[in-house]
What does this fold into?
Amino acid sequence: MAFSADSDNAGGFNEPNVVPLVDVMLVLLIIFMVTASVSQNVRVELPKASVDERPPSVKVTPITITVREAGTVFWGDEELASKDALDARLAVEAQKTPQPEVLLRADKETRYALIQDVTTRVRVAGMRSINYISEPES
It folds into this structure.
């Protein structure tokens, strides 16, 4: 870069001349723009992506698990006798392909420890999708 010497300040440079630097940068920018547009002309056959992984004929109904305030657990509309029965059913559902999603409902006054216990059992069984159902805010 070229510098201009000021006569008032002997021995020092006041400001650098950046015009040649800007010229070089503009030339480089034009070169990169031209080469980038040329390199995009390579033909490639891209794979087709589908939004839904499941075949359209397979309809998987979700599993609804309900936890009441007293700690009783329901599978759909059926009350389960124990947590072991929940574990056994979850183990069967986890082996299915595609896996159904789990919808977890709970009473408003249910202790969080009960909900966490059911959530942990669902995860340990190997279920990948669990969603919590609540009432929308009014």
In short: The helical segments are 19-39, 83-94, 112-125. The chain has two domains: 2-39, 63-132. Residues 31 and 41 are 17 Å apart (CA to CA). The mean pLDDT is 85.
